[in-house]
Structure to design on (257 residues):
């Protein structure tokens, strides 16, 4: 039986992709604040300097490693570096993602391909790499994929993004099923609208402000709203949870799609 009140991740090794901004930055910071040894990944390591300084000032442990999630060699190299710096990651947060707004008939080929390459293929390369290395090390682990409410619901203009996130939810379930016997849990977080660089410009428009009024709680999420769910999924408290795709959205999923 697992300890359902054990939120302790002290000393655990965590890896976060896309950690140079927004949710990824926050996830890396919160994991470090709770005692994890964090490997923060981004395409440009220099963008992680301020995060490293912030975490160090709080007495946390965070290392920066370069990773482009669309590049399999880069993913593998980043895991090699993580292993030599701190050991095999056992909490993996697949957070890197992009969003391109376009209606289907206007969609540029490159936008469609880039969205699937980053949001779906990137999650697959990292999750598979993480799973293989956990298996080889004999450790259990928790893989946390950042999907979206738009992986379950849909709106006009988000076809590529919504399709990629729906696939991430299905990949989460498929991996959870195959890895459960190895004590590797795979879950997805499905945020509604959280104010970050990915959407800040949109919520400054009249259309964006109208969107906020459709959220039952009448507000956007703050990055800190995800802290509790992140820690739940990262820690032994969720030891019997795998294959879940959890909304965290101010009730938005109740009224969209
Ligand atoms: P963001 O733009 O601040 O963060 C995305 C990060 O991914 C950036 O740091 C970016 O540099 C990185 N990235 C993009 N392509 C990459 C690549 N090829 N390799 C490595 N890193 C790459 O936006 P965010 O809101 O913090 O988004 C984080 C995740 O949360 C994304 O997967 C996004 O789809 C998801 N999400 C966000 C919201 C929201 O409302 N903010 C809602 C649902 C889901």
């Amino acid at each position: 039986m697992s300890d359902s009140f054990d939120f302790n991740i002290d000393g655990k090794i965590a890896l976060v992709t896309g950690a140079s901004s927004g949710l990824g930055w926050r996830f890396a910071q919160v994991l470090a604040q709770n005692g994890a040894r964090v490997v923060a990944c981004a395409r440009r390591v220099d963008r992680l300097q301020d995060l490293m300084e912030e975490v160090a000032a709080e007495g946390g442990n965070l290392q920066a490693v370069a990773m482009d999630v669309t590049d399999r060699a880069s993913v593998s190299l980043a895991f090699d570096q993580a292993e030599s710096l701190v050991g095999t990651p056992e909490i993996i947060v697949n957070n890197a993602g992009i969003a391109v707004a376009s209606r289907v008939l206007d969609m540029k080929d490159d936008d469609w391909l880039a969205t699937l390459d980053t949001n779906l293929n990137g999650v697959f390369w990292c999750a598979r790499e993480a799973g293989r290395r956990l298996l080889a090390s004999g450790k259990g682990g928790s893989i946390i994929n950042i999907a979206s409410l738009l992986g379950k619901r849909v709106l006009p203009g988000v076809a590529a993004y919504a399709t990629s996130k729906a696939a991430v939810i299905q990949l989460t379930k498929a991996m959870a099923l195959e890895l459960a016997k190895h004590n590797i849990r795979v879950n997805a977080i499905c945020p509604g609208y959280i104010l970050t660089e990915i959407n800040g410009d949109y919520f400054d428009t009249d259309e964006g402000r109208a969107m906020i009024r459709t959220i039952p709680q009448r507000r956007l999420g703050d990055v800190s709203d995800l802290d509790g769910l992140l820690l739940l999924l990262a820690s032994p408290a969720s030891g019997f949870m795998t294959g879940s795709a959890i909304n965290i959205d101010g009730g938005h999923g109740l009224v969209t799609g």
